[in-house]
Amino acid sequence: MHGITEAGIALANTSSPAAALKLLLHYCYSILKPDLAALYLFPVKKQSGSLKLDSFKGYEPEQKVLSAEEEGIRFILDSRESTCLLQKKESPFSSLLLTPSMHSAIAAPLTTVSGRKGILFLNYMHPYRFSFHHIEQMENLIKLTGMEE
Amino acid sequence: MLHYLPLWLYLLDFAILAVLLVFLFLTFGVKRRIHRKIKTAFERGESIPPLSKRMLLFYSDYMEKLSRTYGRNIPLLTGLDELWLTKFKIRPTRRNMLRLLKYVPGKFLFDVLTGVLAQPRLTKEFTRWIETSGEFMILKRIALSGNGRPFDGKKAARFFKDDMDTLIEMAADPLWQCRYFAFSILVHEPSSRGDQVLKDAFHDSHRENRQILINSYQSDDRTFVYRQLLDCFLNDPVFEVRKHAKIRIDREFQDLYTVQPEDLSPVQKLHLIELLHTGSSNDENIGISFLESGNRELELYASRYLSKTGTLSRLLKTAEPGDSENFNRSHALLKNAVLANCTNFLKEITQTENPGSLLLASRFLQDAGSRLLITPLLEKAVILYRENHNSPVIRELYTNALLCACRRGNDKVLLEVSRELSEQKYSQEVQSLLLPELPERGDAIFIPVLLDFLKDPEYSSEEDLHNALIRFPVSPLVPEMLTMIQSSSGTYPEAIKKRALRILGALDTGCGLQHILENLPLLSLKEAKEFTGMFAHNTPESFDERALLLLSSRDAAIRSRLIAALPEDHKKQFVPVLLAALQDSDPEVRKACVWALSDYGDSTVLKKCSLLLNDPVEAVRKETATALCLSGGDSGISLVEAVLFDTTSSVPVKKAIISGLGKAGTPKAFTLLTKKLIKECELPTELEAALVTFDSDTQIGMLFKLLDSAPLPVQPILQGVLESLGPKAEKEAVKILQQKTTVLRNHATEVLEKSGFINRTVRQLGHRDPAERLAAAQMLSLIGTEKAYRGLITAAKDPVEKIRITVIKAVEHLNTREGKELLEELKNDPNRNVRRYTLWALERAEAKEMD
User: Fold this and answer.
1) In B424-493, which ranges are continuous DSSP H helix?
2) To the nearest whole number, what is the mean pLDDT of chain B?
């Protein structure tokens, strides 16, 4: 709870959206302790096409660009729901794993009133490394930035 | 030998001689007379007296002799020249020709020419005359003499074959008659010089000249000729020119004729319409396209054309409401025709029983068209209505026909209307349609019917009847109303007398005042207040005096109603009386006083009224509270509030105030009630009952907000109010849920649960319309309670993908064993998107298990 509180204060004092996203990444990484946290964003004023890697913490993602038409990515963007994959398997959500060494993942869309901004990924090297509580915390942190998920 | 001749021969000779002598004598006599007349006229300087035509013609030679004698143009002066011309035209002779050329060459030169062209044997003589006459510019003189009259240009071309140069020069003459003459000849004489002149003549400034070219110009270059004709047809400002151009195009250039109406300018379109053929379906289509062009002028021309072709009549006759697209199109077209004042097609309704045709006609006849058609229209509409009054088409037809009759019908058709009005006495729909439309000019027809309605206790369209009656002339009604009001009990029920009284009051006659005032007790207090408006509009002079008299009378019912009916601007003089009446023994009087004095608005007066908040009769207390809140302004509210929150006020007093505040229904009353509830929570049942009367969206929203901040004991009461408000509270609750982040969410869902909204919405998941089912699924998802989700799961097998996805999300939220079983099933859903959502939900469910 302490981490969330600190995050809330920090995010509340941020005026710039870009800085807020950076802080979001930082706090997700520090509170939820993934092996990899990555922020992929659409280019400015665009809401389709490709998402580019904006920033990351931990392991470096293999792909710098993700296609918005890829099944799992598209699902997240269209449904506006945070999505998880508890273990590596054949699934439409396999693309949530950003490197071959990762085995479980959570991803949440970042949306404002003006449209889709991008996706925040958290990856873990081991399967079943998180619970639903992690997902809720991630969603709460996103809400603190003023974004909808 | 002579004496051997028979006698009769002698006699015959003698007779002949005698006749000759007589003839000679007469001739001599006549000639002398003519000579004398002419001589006298010349001597006096007067004009020659008229001589008979026969005489002039018979003595033509003598007239010529006299001309030579006197050196004057006697044929011209006597009009003999005209007679010679007439003769010449009938039968061109050399003699008359020479006479005309000698005496009136300038006047009849053209006529001589036409005679010569008809009678070639005169050619030589005429030619010789031309050569020897010494006349200057003879061709021009001939042209001017003709003044644009038609002649045989072909023959003239042969006659003047040596004068082509002169004619070509004349083609540029400033005088149109000369150009006309020249063109008429040159069109028959092909030459390159002449041809160029003729080509330019299509734009000649005189219409007759243009017409020569249009009718007669020939060229190998057909395209050129066609273009010129087309230009004349579309652009010439003279109708005759355009007409001739079109005739020639139709006759000789059909193969080249291609005109796209949409490419034409508005004026060209008008020119095109004028000359469309009545037998051509292509032209008819053009006419129809112009009728729906949106250009009023075009539509007028198009209407006239389509009226001629019978198209408008056909559109009306074949109108079929079942084919809505064509029906609407016909309606639009015919409407444009009506707006352009072409309404002749409407007479087709006399020959048809087609409901579609009659319906269209009924729409138009309300404002236009022959009034004589309204009678057959109404008759047919009534018959159709009797046969099938459930059909929307027939109902509209019937309604429109009645409106036509009322608005524009003659007396005969108004009689039909009154019969129909009686026939449909108990149909509220027909009564509310017809009564406002009854025209005043039909008073003699309608008043008896309306009075019959008035006296019928079963008749239910009272308001419409009242409004209809007061529009009619007063004189037939006043005696009737008085009779009804004054009748002994049993003749008319009270309800009927009340109707009559209201009408009498509204009739604004200025007489019958005493009757009205004395019969006010027929009305309730509230109804009596209506009379305030009536009296205010035209208060009779004697009103004050009569009112004071009655206010001091013994009858409490009269006093109370009269007080309620006092007009605003007269109240001042009655205030002392009213204040005294606050202590009247009759509660009705006290109630009426409170209302009357609250309207008056004076704070001292209000304070006196507020004493009735403690009246021993509950109804008086309630009315006092209501009156002070509704009419007493801020002062009234303050007075009520003081008593409501006064700890010494008794419970019955407070109950009455609460009830009165509920009846007042104003925002200030609402504020007071909620304040009472939150602050003291006293008399919760009464407060709840009063708050239920406030059902505006704003007030319901405020109730929700209060629910959130209210103390615990108050919350159930507010919940109860919201439950009682039913659909209105549900609507507000849904609005709250749609805001997503709101502290009132729980309260909103609770209201929806308790009101049965969720159950009803769950039932909607079985609706046959997929849109309804989807809306229900989305609503349940929005509500988001366990009950809502459980209900939502029943739609797991809905054929609509979006609904199944909504179910999956609901299952994910619920996180139950049954839900997981359902998800396992949905993993095999044929829809890929559904399968994805299912996998998504299963992952999340598995994550929840790890918590």
Assistant:
1) 428-434, 443-454, 462-469, 477-486
2) 89
Residues belonging to chain A with any Cβ–Cβ distance to chain B shorter than 8 Å = 71, 75, 79, 81, 83-86, 91-93, 128, 130-135
Q: Do A93 and B843 touch (CB under 8 A)?
A: yes
- Indicate the Cα dihedral angle B710, B714, B718, B721, nearest 10°: -160
pLDDT at B3 over 70: no
B846 contacts A93? CB cut-off 8 A: no
Per-residue pLDDT, A134 = 92
Angle, to 10 degrees, between the axis of helix B176-186 and the axis of helix B192-200? 130
Q: Do B837 and A71 touch (CB under 8 A)?
A: no
Q: Is 90 exceeded by the pLDDT of residue B679?
A: no
Q: Is B733 exposed, middle or buried (0-12, 13-18, 19+ CB in 10 A)?
A: buried
Chain-chain contact of A132 with B840 (C-beta, under 8 angstroms)? no
Q: Using CA atoms, how far apart are residues A115 and A23, in angstroms rounded to an integer?
A: 20
Domains in chain A (CATH in brackets) are: 2-144 (3.30.450.40)
pLDDT tens-digit readout, B366-379: 999 999 999 999 99
C-beta separation of A40 from A60 below 8 A: no
C-alpha angle with apex B506: B474 to B458, nearest 5 degrees? Answer: 90
* pLDDT at site B741: 67
Nearest Cβ partner for A132 among B837, B840, B847: B847
What are the chain B neighbours of A84 within 8 Å (beta carbons)?
843-844, 847
Across the range B196-209, mean pLDDT stands at 90
Q: Which two three-digit tokens encode residue B317?
A: 């006759």
A130 and B847 in contact by Cβ < 8 A? yes
ipTM confidence: 0.94
Please name the residues between 696 and 755 in chain B that touch chain A, using a CB distance below 8 Å.
Answer: none
Q: Please, are residues B384 and B390 in contact by the beta-carbon 8 Å criterion?
A: no
Do A131 and B843 count as a contact with CB atoms less than 8 A apart? no
Strands in A7-77 per DSSP E: 36-41, 50-58, 65-67
Q: List the alpha helices (DSSP H) in B693-739.
A: 697-709, 715-725, 727-738
Lowest model confidence (mean pLDDT) among B23-27, B225-229, B360-364: B23-27
* All domains of chain B in start order, with CATH: 1-104 (no CATH), 770-849 (1.25.10.10)
Would the CB atoms of B850 and A130 count as touching at under 8 Å? Answer: yes
Catalogue the E-assigned strands of B293-370: none
Q: Which of A3, A112, A19, A56 is nearest to A11 (CA)?
A: A19
Of B809, B839, B851, the CB nearest to A132: B851
**B840 to A79: CB separation less than 8 angstroms, yes or no:** yes
B837 contacts in chain A (CB < 8 Å): 79
Q: How many CB atoms lie within 10 A of CB B137?
A: 14
Structure tokens at B478: 């006043």
Query: Which residues does chain A have within 8 Å of residue B839's beta carbon, measured at their own beta carbons?
Result: 91-93
CA quadruple B417, B418, B419, B423: dihedral, nearest 10: 100
Q: How many CB atoms lie within 10 A of CB B647?
A: 6
In angstroms, the separation between the Cα of residue A127 and the nearest Cα of chain B is 11
Q: Which of A81, A83, A128 sits opposite B850 (nearest CB)?
A: A128
Instruction: Tell me the CA distances in angstroms from B96 to B12, B66, B90, B544, one per residue in order.
Output: 37, 17, 11, 108
The pLDDT of residue B351 is: 93
Checking B410-413 for CB contacts under 8 A at 24+ apart, the result is B410/B371, B410/B374, B410/B375, B411/B442, B411/B445, B412/B375, B413/B374, B413/B375, B413/B378
Residue A120's pLDDT band (boundaries 50, 70, 90)? Answer: very high
Question: Number of C-alpha atoms within 13 angstroms, CB side, residue B95?
Answer: 7
B456 touches chain A (CB under 8 A): no
CB contact under 8 A, A83 and B836: no
Q: How far apart are CA B592 and CA B529, in angstroms?
A: 9
